[in-house]
Amino acid sequence: MNVPILLWVLSSRGADMVRGTRNIADGREPQAVSTSQRILLVEGSRFFANQVKKQIEAATGTQIVVAPTLAAAGKAIEAERGRGGFALALFDIILPDAAETEVVDLCREKGLPSVVFTGFYSDELRERLTSSRTVIDYIIKDNPASLTMLRQAVTRIWRNRTTKALAVDDSATARRYLVDLMKLYQFQTLEAANGKQALDILHQHPDIKLVVTDYRMPVMDGIDMVKQMRATHPKDRLAVIGIATGGGSSLSAQFIKIGANDFITKPFLREEFFCRINQNMEII
Known about the structure:
Elements: E1 2-3, E2 6-11, E3 39-42, H1 46-60, E4 64-67, H2 70-80, E5 88-92, H3 102-110, E6 114-118, E7 121-122, H4 123-130, E8 135-141, H5 146-160, E9 164-168, H6 172-184, E10 188-192, H7 195-204, E11 210-214, H8 222-229, E12 239-245, H9 248-257, E13 262-266, H10 270-281
Parallel strand pairs: 3-4, 3-5, 5-6, 9-10, 9-11, 11-12, 12-13
Antiparallel strand pairs: 1-7, 2-6, 2-8
């Protein structure tokens, strides 16, 4: 069923163009981010573009470059390469010179993290967007507060660019997946293969703000790790999210009682993962 509402979708650039990931326990800092990158806004309505430009510039302190069409957006992206490329794109999915999702394809092709907005929404469109490896989140704009929600979402992503996050899992495949999700959300990412390595990394990087950890791991499991982390990092300084396959409510309760902020059961939707991170990072 088609619903006439406005959708904002946040997506992120390919893995080769996002925040770097530090190798396990090697002591190096994650790759630094550029503080001079600008944001691209693609919007045919001058009035709406001015409203978005004003709010996002005030929230992020960065310059917004406005393009009214898909063609103008393509030219702006190419021209911006000399400055290191745009950090983020905000654009209307319906443009005078573009078919539906064509602008999404352009930004995905260019590896550009994006916020998409449209006056047309359907379950099919949502499925297409959220199944894309570059989509972070979406915001439905159906009331006057939606622009505020957009500003908050972009501000959160902008803040993540200078925020360290740690993925902890003994499975290299599972850990890689967590790291990729954190990169999509623009975090500076670090990783560890067990609780002991995670504690060592936290000691080296006491400014880490987010830890996502598995439960069952050799050397030290997630429960014991969280207990020790809480001795030096309270909940308002470090958000810890436990994850595990199975275990049910009892494991979730155990994680939270010993100090975790939240718990997610595998397998989980990326949409749920980002929502949980967003909610827990709000208190940090």
